[in-house]
């Protein structure tokens, strides 16, 4: 047994060590089933294991190789109404009631004139104080258009959404072994955030274009289509910003997702199935602070839950409140037979902070970076087998990183970071994300039979160009162990 401990502590890859027995594998299966519970003791909503295929992005619509680029549904020439129709003229009254009617009208006119003057002044005063939309990075409550009253009708919100929501298509070209090319497409949704053409969407909607330099197109309700460039992406939180060459657009007004309450009405406008563009569905906020991991993203993302219908192609679209303000980005749904009405959105406060960084700097600034590559194959089963503590097993340390500078070494097992207990790769990833670049924290490691506390000052995470599985927290996952 001491030989096995030496193999771990010497910093060797776990795959070089002896595999646990079949009994240990059975224990691992039992633990996996336990971790698949959808509601934890702390009330957070955790991802059910990916192999069960229960969560999906409310994502782009992939088309087959023989399928043409999908044609968006083109609405009729009739535009969404901006004004409510005037009341029809009342039928003529009888002569008998004419005198009474005339007197009543005169009295109403005198009173209405006085009141109307006050109301008109208030309306003009409010209009003059309303901040104008600008092309600067967006901020909550100061950018774009919403419903003028506290609550608007669903038709008012739809009319507004048709000016602000967009369809997004990535044209994918593939070449086979014989040199023949074929085209397909993926489709999603997005929304305008500045008058001069910045658009926010989910990263997974334009992932293929970002990774392979494919063409991205943006289409508006009136049928106008623009080529888009990718300004920046934040894969970890599934946010991306596009830019089109256009001016005079109608941006959304950003709401405050911190003030969302369970039960309030929400409206999703997007591009379901890649062809039914500008479809609106309605529902209510169902729950807050859900930690969701999709098949497309290994890191848990903070989202809130709502019950409006969401389908493939809705990803990246706006979720409005009753005031016509955007409070979230439609991102994911719970996918399982017999389960409906479980949809999820990224809170707009989180998304706009990221979008502003992407617009200004091209990447999200201030994120903590450790620089330790973690072998995620080390789990509780291996810990029990080797009589070692649970934690994050350090596979290697990047040269000149803060991990190297603080004394972290290959073979160390990280058991605590700051006040955060670390039992596996995901715990460490979450713990690092609770810090900012430049902050200092204690890091507890198990090394050759003893516990040691180190002090680390985090580096800043920069745009990741490494395709070897190193994520934005400086951790490397090796999920193919077996």
Can you put this structure into words, describing what you see?
There is one protein chain. This protein folds into two domains: 2-35 and 366-460, Pdz3 Domain; 42-75 and 133-175 and 182-365, Thrombin, subunit H (Beta Barrel). A hairpin with an 8-residue loop joins β8 and β9 (279-292). The chain contains nine helices and 21 strands. It is an alpha+beta fold and 482 residues long. Strands 8-9-10-13-12-11 form a six-stranded antiparallel beta barrel. Strands 2-3-4-7-6-5 form a six-stranded antiparallel beta barrel.
Write out key terms for the chains shown:
disordered C terminus, 22% helix, single chain, 9 helices, Pdz3 Domain, 6-stranded antiparallel barrel
How would you summarize this macromolecular structure in one to three sentences?
The chain is an alpha+beta fold. The protein is built from nine helices and 21 strands. A six-stranded antiparallel beta barrel has the order 8-9-10-13-12-11.
């Amino acid at each position: 047994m001491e030989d096995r401990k030496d193999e771990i502590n010497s910093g060797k890859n776990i795959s070089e060590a002896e595999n646990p027995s079949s009994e240990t594998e059975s224990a691992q299966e039992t633990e996996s089933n336990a971790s698949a519970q959808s509601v934890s003791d702390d009330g957070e909503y955790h991802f059910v294991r990916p192999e069960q295929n229960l969560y999906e992005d409310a994502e782009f619509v992939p088309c087959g190789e023989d399928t043409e680029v999908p044609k968006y549904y083109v609405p009729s020439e009739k535009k969404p109404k901006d004004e409510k129709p005037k009341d029809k003229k009342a039928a003529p009254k009888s002569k008998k009631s004419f005198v009474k009617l005339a007197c009543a009208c005169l009295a109403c006119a005198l009173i209405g004139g006085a009141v109307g003057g006050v109301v008109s002044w208030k309306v003009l005063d409010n209009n003059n104080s309303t901040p104008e939309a600008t092309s600067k990075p967006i901020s909550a409550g100061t950018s774009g258009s919403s419903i003028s009253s506290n609550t608007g009708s669903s038709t008012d919100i739809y009319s507004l959404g048709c000016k602000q929501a967009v369809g997004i298509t990535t044209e994918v070209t593939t070449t086979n072994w014989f040199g023949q090319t074929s085209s397909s497409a993926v489709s999603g949704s997005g929304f305008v955030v500045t008058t001069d053409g910045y658009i926010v969407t989910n990263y997974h909607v334009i992932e293929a274009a970002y990774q392979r330099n494919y063409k991205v197109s943006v289409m508006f309700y009136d049928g106008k289509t623009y080529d888009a460039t990718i300004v920046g992406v934040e894969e970890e939180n599934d946010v991306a910003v596009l830019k089109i060459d256009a001016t005079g657009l109608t941006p959304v007004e950003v709401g405050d997702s911190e003030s969302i309450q369970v039960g309030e009405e929400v409206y999703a406008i997007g591009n379901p199935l890649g062809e039914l563009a500008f479809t609106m569905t309605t529902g209510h906020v169902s729950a807050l602070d859900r930690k969701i991991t999709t098949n497309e993203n290994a890191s848990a993302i903070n989202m809130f839950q709502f019950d409006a219908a969401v389908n493939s192609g809705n990803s990246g679209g706006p979720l409005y409140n009753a005031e016509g303000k955007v409070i979230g980005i439609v991102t994911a749904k719970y996918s399982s037979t017999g389960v409906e009405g479980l949809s999820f959105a990224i809170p707009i406060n989180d998304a706009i902070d990221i979008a502003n960084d992407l617009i200004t700097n091209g990447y999200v600034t201030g994120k903590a970076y450790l620089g330790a590559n973690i072998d995620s194959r080390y789990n509780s089963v291996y810990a029990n087998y080797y009589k070692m503590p649970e934690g994050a097993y350090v596979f290697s340390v990047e040269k000149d990183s803060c991990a190297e500078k603080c004394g972290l070494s290959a073979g160390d097992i990280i058991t605590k970071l700051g006040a955060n207990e670390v039992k596996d790769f995901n715990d460490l990833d979450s713990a690092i994300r609770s810090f900012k670049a430049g902050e200092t924290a204690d890091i507890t490691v198990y090394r050759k039979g003893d516990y040691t506390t180190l002090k680390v000052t985090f580096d800043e995470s920069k745009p990741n160009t490494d395709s070897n599985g190193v994520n934005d927290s400086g951790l490397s996952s090796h999920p193919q162990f077996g």
